[in-house]
Each structure stands twice: as structure tokens, then as C-alpha cells.
Amino acid sequence: MSQDKNDPLDVVINGLLPYFLAADHSFMLGKVISIDKGSPWRVDVQPSPKQSDGNERAIIGDCLVLESAASTIKRGSSVLVGFHDRDMDNYNGAGEFELASRRMHDINDGIVLGVIKSE
Questions:
Q1: Does residue 106 contact residue 52 with C-beta atoms inside 8 Å?
Q2: Cα(91)–Cα(76) distance, rounded to whole angstroms?
Q3: Which of 42, 23, 46 shows the shortest CA–CA distance to 104?
Q4: What is the pLDDT of residues 70-85, one digit of tens each?
Q5: How far apart are CA 62 and CA 45, in angstroms?
Q6: For the chain, which residues score pLDDT lower than 50?
Q7: Structural domains of the chain, ranges and CATH numbers in brackets
Q8: How many Cβ atoms sit within 10 Å of the Cβ of residue 71?
Q9: Pairing label, strands 60-65, 110-115
């Protein structure tokens, strides 16, 4: 790595990359605050990690629930949420679907992957 802080690679890695990574969601722990047992099941999740200022993060709404998590999920459950590669606005629970946008790895496309066993 260059010792010059104005080196373009240094600017990208230390200056810009953290902003790109902050917008790319992969997994998050949270607590179920509401359940909609429609088809497919969806839940609203309050993220567990607080923001850097100590405030709660915004609720992740309408997360899909995997069948393997549905049997144990309830209000207050701690869950692991993953985020789909593409938008899921048009997903109805089965089969192929048309994308509604170019959105990728977004917090609005959550899927509950499992319930955290706490006992």
C-alpha cells in the first residue's frame, strides 16, 4: 500500500469502500415484533444491534419466513435475518417472479432463516 494518502487506491479502500459495504446487507440478528401468517408468512423484525448513536435501528418489515423457522417462531423470538440478492417485491411464495427494481442486497428484502435457540 502506498504511503501517499492521496493515492487513488488508498482513497478507494479507506475512503469509499466503507460506504459501499454499509449499504450491502448480508445477515442481521433481530427480534420478531409482529407476525402475518398469510401466504407466504411474513414478520416484522426489530434489529438487535443499535446504531452508533445508541438509538434503535428502523424495523425491517415484511421479512419472509422459511418453513423450517415457522414452527418455532413467535412474537419476541430472536431470529437471524438474511437479505436476498435482488428485490422481492413481486414474490408471492412460489416459482419465478419479475423484478420490480434494480435493488440488490437491500434491508427491505429480508428472509428469516432461523430462530435463535436461547434455552
A1: no
A2: 26
A3: 23
A4: 999 999 999 999 998 8
A5: 8
A6: 1-2
A7: 25-115 (2.40.50)
A8: 7
A9: parallel
